[in-house]
Amino acid sequence: MLVFLSLALALAAWMYDAGRRFAGFDRSELQNEFARLRESMGRLESEAARLRSIANASESRLKIEQTAQAQLASQVKTLEDENNRLKEDLAFFENLVPSERRGEKVSIHRFKVERDVLPGEFRYRLLVLQGGRLDREFHGSLQLVVEMQQEGRDATIVIPESAETGSTAFRLNFKYFRRVEGTFRVPAGAKVRTVQARILENGSSEARASQNINLS
After folding, report:
1. Is 80 in the same domain as 181?
2. Which of 194, 181, 183, 197 is nearest to 118 (CA)?
3. 148 contacts 189 by C-beta, under 8 angstroms
4. How many CA within 13 A on the CB side of residue 87?
5. Rounded Cα gap, residues 91 and 149, in angstroms
6. Residue 164 to residues 142, 159, 168, 200, Cα–Cα distance (Å)
7. Which domain holds residue 207?
8. Last residue of a domain, which of 66, 95, 124?
9. What is the rounded average pLDDT of the residues 115-136?
């Protein structure tokens, strides 16, 4: 009986396997096909990873190149602006006649104030010249008096409030001339009307030179 059951089971297994082969479902062929598919998928995944790596590297290089180009353009613009200012300074000194240098000892030239990028921020620049005798250095400071309208009322601010508390950006120590430039800020919404540049000598509260510029 046991032998018969064993033979019956073996026959059933053979018939099942034969039926699968006849129906096109041979296990070995399926396993081989799965192996081929897995191998192809592995190759495709490797190729996709390689292409992603190349794309990421190219994108990184492009970003680096774009950043470098932007920085280079900014540096070129800065150098061009500086060169133009130097040309203006040179032209000014070339046209400066001796009689002007023998006049007022300290004078302000080419005073400019322009709105900067940030709201309420202004950029200024000026040239301070010492005429007359040039046997000593001038020691003093720059002071800006800003007249504006804020919330419908007239207002005035002094930058810096005093020479003693001012930053080094406002201190002046020179013998022949000094080019000064920087920025200042006013309260948001304020409308600047005029800016006055005042040159103060150390030990004196009286301006040695002053010049106004109208922005309204």
Report:
1. no
2. 183
3. no
4. 6
5. 37
6. 12, 12, 10, 11
7. 103-214
8. 95
9. 84
Structural tokens at position 170: 């406002």
The three-state DSSP-derived secondary structure of 114-170 is EECCCCCEEEEEEEEEECCCCCCCEEEEEEEEEEEEECCEEEEEEECCCCCCCCHHH
**How open is the CA angle 156-157-162, to the nearest 5 degrees?**
135
Q: Do 107 and 89 fall within a single domain? A: no
E strands, the chain, in order? 106-115, 121-130, 138-150, 153-159, 171-174, 177-185, 191-201, 207-214
Q: Residues 112, 78: one domain?
A: no
Three-state secondary-structure class, residue 25: coil
Q: Please give the average per-residue pLDDT across 200-208, as a whole number.
A: 88
Same domain, 68 and 119: no
Tell me the one-letter amino acid at 99.
S
Q: Report DSSP state, residue 96.
A: -
Which one of 60, 95, 130 terminates a domain? 95
Question: Is the separation of the CB atoms in 146 and 186 below 8 Å?
Answer: yes
Report residue 174: phi and psi, to 5°.
Answer: -155, 165
Same domain, 50 and 143: no
Per the structure, the count of domains in the chain is 2
- The answer to whether 148 and 193 are in contact (CB under 8 A) is yes
51-84 pLDDT per residue, tens: 777 777 777 777 778 887 788 778 777 777 777 7
